[in-house]
């Protein structure tokens, strides 16, 4: 069974994290971390609490609890996804600051040459945002903006969310049947 870390930070777009969790939960061991602002947005945008993620194959951590297994290089993972990724979180990880569990886990994934997928949901990007994302890309992270495609003729917001989640799953190497590949 694959093992993934899912981090939810304080940017709008927690629907992406929820959908990713729902798809991965029956297939993988999940380790979920929510920032304080991520918890607020989960309530605001979806009327959910962190207890939603307390399901089979899933462990939920407090962002303030840095002394956990996922903060160690000995914790082997098949990838970490930060979705949605706030620009504050992106900046701190790019600067090597590990003052929270999300930041420390991401730092560990990068130093261990693992797969770190960062899904920013911000517009427009400032020069500082772009430089921070470039630094993370150069350090081995993958920047996957929450930009849905429209060539598959989406019929609902759920279709738009699925497009982005399918791209994340593709990058994680997880077979997904939610969005068919593009064909001309």
UniProtKB/TrEMBL annotation:
The keyword Calcium does not apply. The keyword Lyase applies. InterPro entries: Flavin_trans-like, Flavoprotein, UbiX-like. It comes from the Bacteria. It catalyses: dimethylallyl phosphate + FMNH2 = prenylated FMNH2 + phosphate. SUPFAM superfamilies: Homo-oligomeric flavin-containing Cys decarboxylases, HFCD. Its EC number is 2.5.1.129. GO terms for molecular function: flavin prenyltransferase activity; lyase activity. FMN binds at residues 10-12, 35, 86-89, 121. Residues 2-172 form the Flavoprotein domain. Gene3D superfamilies: Flavin prenyltransferase-like. Pfam families: Flavoprotein. Dimethylallyl phosphate binds at residues 151, 167. Keywords: Flavoprotein, FMN, Lyase, Prenyltransferase, Transferase. Belongs to the UbiX/PAD1 family. Flavin prenyltransferase that catalyzes the synthesis of the prenylated FMN cofactor (prenyl-FMN) for 4-hydroxy-3-polyprenylbenzoic acid decarboxylase UbiD. The prenyltransferase is metal-independent and links a dimethylallyl moiety from dimethylallyl monophosphate (DMAP) to the flavin N5 and C6 atoms of FMN. This is Flavin prenyltransferase UbiX. The lineage of its organism: Bacteria, Pseudomonadati, Nitrospinota/Tectimicrobiota group, Nitrospinota, Nitrospinia. The gene is ubiX.
